[in-house]
Design goal:
- The structure is a single chain.
- With about 475 residues, this protein is an alpha+beta fold.
- The protein has three domains: about 220 residues, FAD/NAD(P)-binding domain (3-Layer(bba) Sandwich); about 120 residues, D-Amino Acid Oxidase, subunit A, domain 2 (D-Amino Acid Oxidase, Chain A, domain 2, 2-Layer Sandwich); about 70 residues, no CATH class.
- It contains twelve helices and 27 strands.
- Strands 1, 2, 8, 9, 10, 11, 19 and 20 form an eight-stranded mixed β-sheet that branches. Strands 6-5-14-15-16-13-17 form a seven-stranded mixed β-sheet, covered by helices on one side.
- It is globular.
- Keywords: FAD, Flavoprotein.
- Pfam families: FAD_binding_3.
């Protein structure tokens, strides 16, 4: 068995020498090790695979995580999914959010829209609101795309140790195996073992002291064209909601309990709370397919990078589920990091490019965390901010606008999904490369993640920018 101690002599050697030593002792090696095969890790794996980067995904569980969990895919993430090649499958697997039906004393008492809808074409996107896909199905689609590109997920690999040196990272698993990588990404969730091993703290707060039960259930006695909401009906009882999960026969149940409650996660416990808080009998719940519980909190990692290891997704930021922001922010972490790792690994860009991952994503995560918390506390609406189309990198060191009078589209902005002279801009931008666009208000160099890196009235200064960032 290879132990971490046996790797100590690898430190301070060149990467090539280190790989030769790794081969001699039979250790697996890769360019990027991704710990965690949820949506974050899978999206990053896809982005790296299409760039020809060797990446290995490892997952602690024997299967991908079950349950509907984060079910809302926001418009900006839908655009990302189109670029990653999974949009058609995501559209086929889900549907729009249904209108909420509020119940009182067994009667329908009114309707409620969870998200403020946008008009067609508003914010320059073809998507006007979140698309509902259960997280387990989202993961299946991403994993299939990764496999199509030649990527691999190893299940049952719990990380129990991680070390790094000037040339790479070594991760060891409970199985006794080890992997050597040039870089590693912790996408292993809010209780990230990698983050703890690195000693990176998280700063946060409890959003709500009242715990929540979440379950995927089968109920035949309710219409599937409404999100059924049952407000608190008595002393000590919280709300209960049953949302039909598009593309399945399931409902996602969410029920709130008083602080300190020991929630019963058994099928009988789920049936009991449904009977207590709705007009339905216990036997109306014909099947309980998955259960979980949590207490809503918000937390932000103190750093998103430690040497050759990066934090992404819930390992870097933990959200209240209100507003459907956590999964989407996480996937966009991966979309930001993927092209930067690819550019550095193939030698086109300086290693310093990787510093911009934390520079750009940590402020975004902090902003979105504030929004999620405000929505949970009924201090903000689920409006344009939740669609994440307006998030930008205007303050990034990668952003440069040389125009005397910047127009509506500025450096750092997401390029809108427009059609000009019969050509859809997103068709021009699709793929893993930078793109130069000449539009009515200037010249734009668009990053691989669809944001404007450089803007000018002419191409004067463009080559200097390219040389600086390694384009």
């Amino acid at each position: 068995m290879v132990t971490l101690d046996s790797l100590t002599p690898l430190r301070a050697r060149s990467w090539a020498t280190a790989l030769n030593s790794v081969k001699e002792i039979g250790m697996r090696q890769t360019d990027v090790l991704i710990v965690g095969a949820g949506p974050t890790g899978l999206a990053l794996g896809i982005d790296l695979a299409r760039r020809g980067v060797r990446a290995l995904l490892v997952e602690r569980g024997e299967t991908l995580a079950p349950g509907s969990r984060g079910k809302g895919i926001q418009p900006r993430t839908m655009e990302v999914y189109e670029d990653l090649g999974v949009l058609d499958e995501i559209l086929a697997a889900g549907g729009p959010y249904p209108v909420g039906m509020i119940w009182q004393d067994g009667r329908q008492a009114g309707e409620h829209r969870m998200f403020d809808p946008a008009e067609d074409g508003e914010e320059g996107s073809r998507f006007t609101g979140p698309w509902m896909v259960p997280q387990w199905r989202n993961q299946e689609i991403l994993r299939a795309r990764l496999a199509e590109l030649g990527g691999e997920v190893l299940l049952g690999r719990e990380v129990v140790g991680i070390e790094q040196d000037t040339d790479g990272v070594t991760a060891s698993f409970a199985t006794g195996e080890s992997v050597r990588a040039r870089y590693a990404v912790a996408a292993d969730g809010g209780r990230s073992a990698v983050r703890r091993a690195l000693g990176i703290g998280m700063t946060g707060e409890t959003v709500d002291p009242d715990p929540l039960l979440v379950a995927d259930v089968r109920i035949t006695a309710l219409e599937r064209n409404r999100w059924h909401v049952f407000p608190p009906s008595g002393e000590g009882a919280g709300f209960l909601a049953l949302c039909p999960l598009a593309g399945t026969e399931d409902f996602q149940l969410v029920a709130q309990f008083p602080e300190g409650t020991d929630i019963d996660l058994t099928p009988d416990g789920v049936r009991k709370v449904v009977a207590e808080r709705t007009h339905l009998a216990p036997e109306a719940v014909t099947e309980v397919r998955w259960t979980s519980n949590f207490r809503p909190r918000a937390a932000l990692a103190d750093r998103f990078r430690a040497g050759r290891v990066f934090l992404a997704g819930d390992a870097a930021h933990i959200h209240s589920p209100a507003g459907g922001q956590g999964l989407n922010t996480s996937v966009q972490d991966a979309y930001n990091l993927g092209w930067k790792l690819g550019a550095v690994l193939d030698g086109r860009a300086p290693e310093s490019l990787l510093d911009t991952y934390e520079e750009e994503r940590r402020p975004i995560a902090a902003r979105v965390l504030g929004l999620s918390t405000a929505i949970h506390r009924d201090e903000a609406r689920r409006d344009a901010g939740t669609r994440q189309l307006g998030l930008n990198y205007r303050d990034s060191s990668l952003t440069q606008d040389t125009r005397r009078t910047p127009g509506a589209l500025r450096a750092g902005d997401r390029v809108p999904d427009l059609t000009i002279d019969g050509v859809r801009l997103f068709d021009r931008l699709r793929g893993p490369d930078w793109t130069t666009l000449t539009l009515a208000d200037g010249v734009f160099l668009v990053r691989p993640d669809g944001y404007v890196g450089w803007a000018g009235e002419t191409e004067a200064g463009l080559q200097e920018y390219r040389a600086r960032v390694g384009v």
